Amino acid sequence: MNCKPRYHIGFSREDLGEHPPAFALLCGDPDRAARIARETEGVRLVKILSENRGLNSYLASLPGGQRILSATSGMGAPSLSIVVNELYDVGIRRIIRVGTCGSIQDHVKTGSVVITRAALCRQGAANDIAPVEYPSAANPFVTVALVNAARELKVDWHMGITASVDTFYEGQERTESSVNKHLMRWLGGVCLTKKTLRALGVSEERLQEMHRDEIRVGGITEEYRHLNVLNYEMECGTLLKMAGVYGFAAACICAVVADRTAGEEIARPLKLAAEENAVRVALRAVETMDPEYLKPCYW
Ligand SMILES: O=P(O)(O)O[C@H]1O[C@H](CO)[C@@H](O)[C@H]1O
Ligand SMILES: O=c1cc[nH]c(=O)[nH]1
After folding, report:
1. Which residue spans traverse the membrane (predicted)?
2. Measured in angstroms, how far is the CA atom of residue 98 from the centroid of ligand 1?
3. Which residues in 126-174 belong to E strands, given as ranges?
């Protein structure tokens, strides 16, 4: 057994006891990983494994006795790729990303959760690991367990395609809240002023309804909306590709904390409750997972 702590995550296979936990919950935010292990009803903190580089990792147990790892990926695919590589090395074979995201569809409201069945992976780190065409698909059995758990807990859920991108601002077409107001055309489309819209024959009534003097059309978000993408986040696509390449089971559930059909802001008042719902669903999925589907042949 390799007893040396791994360089970034700061713990070793030996720190996990005789058998590594069956599941890891992996959060971008170290505070969420800590809350899962320290403050979630029914979860008992067994051991702080490491808080190296803010990549907080905790061993915890559930009421039925199952042990879980609550770990931190950091933000974005490069950090996630390091953590997942080292988690695999210490014996982790099932990872549920428990994250936050922005909705790009009208029917996906803030406060709900999105369970990813596949990702549009626009992530540079993933290209170091597999060809760009390589599928970014969630494990179907863990995904169904997440859906069943959300139904049982009566959490407002959606299942669908997630866009995983490398930047929160430019890549998710944010301009008002970003210092960079000039998106590249393939991301931002074009801005039409009221004057141009009038010349194009848009009625005065419609122009009056506009909140701003210009609208942006043909941007990446509009394109993804038409492709039935539900949400934006920044790690899932690479995680799912790594699962395919390394051979482990991965799935993703994200709390919706921004409504990108209406604006760019994070809905801070409901963020914590939405995250708690995503955590509860993930833990219930772990508890109720049919042991048959834990076999390596289902990864
Ligand atoms: O809340 P987490 O899990 O960090 O996930 C989302 O939040 C961060 C951006 O605010 C990115 O990491 C994105 O994927
Ligand atoms: O809009 C959002 C919210 C959370 N995380 C993202 O990546 N985007």
Report:
1. none
2. 9
3. 157-165
